């Protein structure tokens, strides 16, 4: 049986089981509410509001997973591993030859940080590569190598869903598997620490970020690491102290492993307030994971250079095939001539983007959370023109990217009765230490799919085979 038929069948069986369980005595509404309540009671919420008026807000989770076959996941793993090799090779160009430095579009502050020694050879220890997957087609729309979010939220949701009655019934017929991310992240942090030269059996871990949207997730990871026997605390970048060659959290905990969350602007936006942290980082006073050097692969405009014929000489034949097949046409918005998506025709970039709204997306180069993204096919020409104007006249740089059709899947909702509603899916694949580590999905009814923008989560479950 083909992969598509297997997935179609298990999706239909999930739907049939849930419909059968939806009775007046025990409505499906209860199953959905119970899953969401358990998720939120575990502390899986997001922060909304400003620094003065922060509200912890629940966000939706779905009791139906996104099913993939083992063969499909093996192919995703093959592709992901090649992509990770490519990202390491390309980011390494920054240090090999000065003529490559301009393609990374670093600010002066970022340059100072990137050129500080990190003590480890690998630049990308922890990443989440965001993609759209439809049948056997995988398109990576961006690489979240800076500091990816969501691993604890995904672990908790997967655990809750796997304990539900629908999954219990499905396991009588199928062997099902799933991935957990926080244990793999801890293992990666320890690997990086040993490579850095750390000798402590139980090193102290600081999770460092601002108190933004996913701050509650950081607190959950702190508690998990503590249960594993590690001294672990959360701290903000400005709160880090540095004296006598050691960095400390506000409570006085000496930092051995600095698990950097948030994003680079958590540092650069408070530049004058983090002088102790900058000094500690410059002196390599702790093992930072991911180090700031990971941003070299996170810059959205880098996707343009991944398919540059000169750079592709670095790749193996398999890596070349993966990049050509999985990376969509992407260009930094500048007044210039460039090759169009057909790879043959020279086009004036601004004119081409203006005339091809329905096949393109415009994205701010260094924002996150879906902020400022303009998806051409769902925008009016006036809205498209406005974004082009911003790209041409503001300091915020934009990239134009080939629009990739967004996969959709029907997921169960209860409002108040059970119904099935089509949701858009963004498949996100983690890689730790350069190796594929599994994935999860984000869902939304909007074309911009992001938790901080009102989206939800859907775990990936692997159909290993039939019983």
Quick description:
The protein has helices spanning 3-21, 28-41, 70-96, 108-114, 151-162, 165-170, 182-196, 215-227, 265-268, 275-282, 302-306, 317-326, 349-355, 381-393; strands spanning 46-48, 55-57, 66-69, 126-134, 137-144, 174-177, 205-208, 232-235, 241-243, 246-248, 257-260, 287-289, 330-332, 337-339, 346-348, 360-364, 374-375, 398-402, 408-414, 418-432, 435-444, 456-466.
- Give the strand tally: 22
The number of domains: 2
| Overall residue-averaged pLDDT value | 93
Largest sheet entry = 8 strands, mixed
Structural class: alpha+beta
- Inertia-based shape: globular
Low-pLDDT runs: none
How far the N terminus sits from the C terminus, by CA atoms, comes to 15 Å
Radius of gyration (Å)? 23 Å
Give the fraction of residues assigned to helices.
25-40%
Question: What is the number of helical segments per DSSP (H or I, 4+ residues)?
Answer: 14
Strand-residue proportion: 15-25%
Oligomer: single chain
């Amino acid at each position: 049986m083909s992969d598509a038929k297997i997935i179609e069948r298990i999706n239909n069986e999930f739907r049939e089981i849930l419909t059968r369980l939806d009775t007046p005595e025990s409505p499906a509404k209860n199953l959905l509410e119970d899953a969401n309540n358990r998720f939120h009671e575990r502390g899986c919420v997001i922060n909304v509001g400003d620094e003065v008026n922060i509200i912890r807000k629940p966000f939706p989770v779905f009791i139906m997973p996104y099913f993939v076959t083992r063969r499909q996941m093996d192919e995703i793993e093959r592709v992901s591993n090649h992509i990770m090799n490519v990202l390491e090779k390309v980011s390494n160009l920054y240090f090999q030859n000065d003529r490559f430095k301009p393609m990374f579009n670093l600010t002066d502050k970022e340059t100072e940080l990137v050129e500080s020694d990190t003590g480890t050879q690998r630049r990308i220890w922890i990443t989440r590569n965001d993609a759209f997957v439809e049948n056997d087609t995988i398109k990576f729309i961006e690489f979240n190598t800076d500091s990816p979010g969501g691993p604890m939220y995904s672990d908790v949701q997967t655990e809750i869903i796997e304990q539900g009655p629908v999954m219990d019934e499905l396991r009588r017929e199928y062997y099902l598997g799933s991935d957990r991310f926080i244990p793999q992240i801890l293992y990666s942090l320890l690997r990086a620490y040993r490579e850095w030269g750390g000798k402590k059996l139980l090193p102290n871990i600081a999770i460092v970020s601002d108190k933004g949207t996913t701050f509650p997730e950081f607190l959950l990871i702190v508690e998990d690491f503590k249960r594993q026997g590690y001294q672990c605390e959360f701290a903000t970048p400005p709160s880090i102290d540095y004296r006598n060659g050691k960095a400390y959290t506000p409570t006085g905990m000496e930092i051995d492993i600095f698990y950097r969350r948030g994003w680079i602007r958590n540092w650069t936006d408070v530049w004058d307030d983090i002088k102790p942290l900058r000094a500690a980082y410059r002196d390599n006073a702790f093992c930072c994971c991911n180090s700031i050097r990971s941003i070299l692969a996170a810059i959205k405009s880098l996707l343009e250079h991944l398919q540059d014929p000169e750079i592709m000489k670095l790749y193996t034949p398999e890596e070349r095939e993966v990049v050509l097949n999985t990376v969509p046409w992407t260009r930094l918005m500048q007044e210039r001539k460039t090759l169009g998506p057909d790879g043959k025709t020279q086009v004036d970039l601004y004119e081409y983007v203006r005339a091809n709204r329905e096949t393109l997306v415009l994205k701010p180069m260094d924002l996150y959370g879906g902020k400022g993204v303009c998806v051409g096919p769902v925008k009016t020409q006036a809205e498209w023109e406005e974004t082009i104007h911003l790209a041409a006249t503001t300091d915020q740089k934009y990239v134009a990217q080939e629009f990739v059709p967004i996969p959709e899947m029907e997921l169960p909702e209860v409002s108040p009765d059970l119904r099935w509603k089509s949701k858009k899916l963004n498949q996100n694949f983690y890689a730790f230490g350069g190796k594929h580590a599994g994935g999860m999905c984000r869902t939304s009814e909007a074309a911009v799919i992001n938790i901080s923008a009102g989206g939800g989560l859907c775990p990936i479950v692997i159909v290993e085979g039939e019983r």
